[in-house]
Amino acid sequence: MTALTLSTAAAPGLRADAIVVGVAKGGSAKSGDLVVAPGAEAVDKAYDGGLAGVLETLGASGGEGEVTKLPAPSGFKAPVVLAVGLGAQPDKGASFDTETLRRAAGAAARALAGSKKAAFALPVADAADAGAIGEGALLGAYAFDTYKENGRNGKKDGKNGKPPLAEVALLGGKPRDKAYKAAVERAVAVSEELNRARDLVNTPPNDLNPEAFAAVAQTAAKEHGIKVQVLDEKALEKGGYGGILGVGAGSASAPRLVKLSYTSSKAKKHLAFVGKGITYDSGGISLKPAGHNETMKCDMSGAAAVFAAVVAAARLGLEVNVTGWLALAENMPSGSATRPGDVLRMYSGKTVEVLNTDAEGRLVLADALWKASEDKPDAIVDVATLTGAMVLALGNRTFGVMANDDAFRTAVVEAAEEAGEPSWPMPLPDHLKKGMDSPTADIANMGERMGGGLVAGLFLKEFVGEGITWAHLDIAGPAFNESGPFGYTPKGGTGSAVRTLVRVAELAASGDLGAK
Ligand code: BES
Ligand code: MN
Ligand code: ZN
């Protein structure tokens, strides 16, 4: 992992491979109206106040995420200045938006792969800005090269991509100030755990089956003083977890239900996070066609997010109890697999007619939600790559938020916004429940095709304990980035929802989580 420190060093004397500065589009309409962002005064001065002009000559526009490298001015210890675009300059008196800074720091860190150390001289108006820049840099520097011949485990000759930027020094902050220290510590804990969630998502499904995932959770939990309990196939059988067992029935790798309990002696609230952990979703007997299964190792992104968020909450010592539930199974077709037409008896006692074995996420979540409800938490949030319909509705960067309580749904959407994650509230219209009527069982695992994301949400709602506030995040779109990297988001696993869950836990700890 990239190291992060606050530094008071002045840019000229700093020993680093590069100094990162911000450049914004100025207020006037004429093209090439560039403004060097605050934080880079010393650098600009060394160019005799001409940095904006030099950047203009080099074709920089100040557009968000744009990266321009230029030789550092003479007298500088660092050889390179990297200017990153911040988009439009904020109104007079206002500072740059934290998410803009986070993304810019991410783009800069990614562009500096192969470098050892970089100093970030971006605009820092307060501790939150320092945290955002730190987070962006650590998330943007991420690379998954475990399986590359010349990656982490081999010789680093650059043939298979450069190693990530190793060290980030943040300039412009106050290293002795409590708030700044806390912001950097938070950025490190959240980013490290989020990057670990990305690693889990990116790990190929032949290496990350339910058992392997549970083992990773066990190790991490021990390290961070989190209580962990793993239900294996025998325990699941004994407990009557028909949903998780039914989904895992076709796989040579047995399912698991993992419970992670982080408790704080000062906690006033208890949150439960539930994650969909399908380590590979082939669709089962309702097999997915080619073109739809190549990235389905990402179907455990919800469980990865929950896992990362619980560990982050523990590392930050948040004053709230957080229970994480990882519903782990592999969805495969075989002679022992659940058939379309089979009826499963769920942990809640309800029966489900499985009409489509590819609607498996809701089955494992149903058992985990009912189990989580038994503890009577103040609220449950589940996270799942649940439906293609949600991707059609909201695209690849926004997750949908559904809930059984409007105020809680709003609170979660606001938490996501504060965390820098795009999300959107979605309804759970009662009339769509009818489509899941089954002639044989209490409910079917499929309903109307139209509004498929909401239908899935309505199915889950049936398995939330009476009177418990619940929200459901469908992250099928943003969990896995199949196109090029942007901002601090790499190709592949993104760590979607980790920061939202951490923010929800923080708000619950401070008593500020909406109505709850
Ligand atoms: N894991 C998929 C959803 C998914 C789709 C995740 C695209 C990430 C990207 C889920 O298990 C699934 O197959 N859902 C079906 C449900 C349908 C059969 C009712 C879907 O969305 O097509
Ligand atoms: Mn599926
Ligand atoms: Zn799935």
From TrEMBL:
Per UniProt, subcellular location reads as: Cytoplasm
Q: Which amino acids does the record list as binding Mn(2+) 2? A: 276, 281, 299, 360
Active site positions: 288, 362
Q: Where is the Cytosol aminopeptidase domain?
A: 356-363
- Binding of Mn(2+) 1 occurs at 281, 358, 360
**Cofactor dependence:** Mn(2+)
* Domain of life of the native organism: Bacteria
Q: Which family does it belong to?
A: Belongs to the peptidase M17 family.
Q: What is this protein called?
A: Probable cytosol aminopeptidase
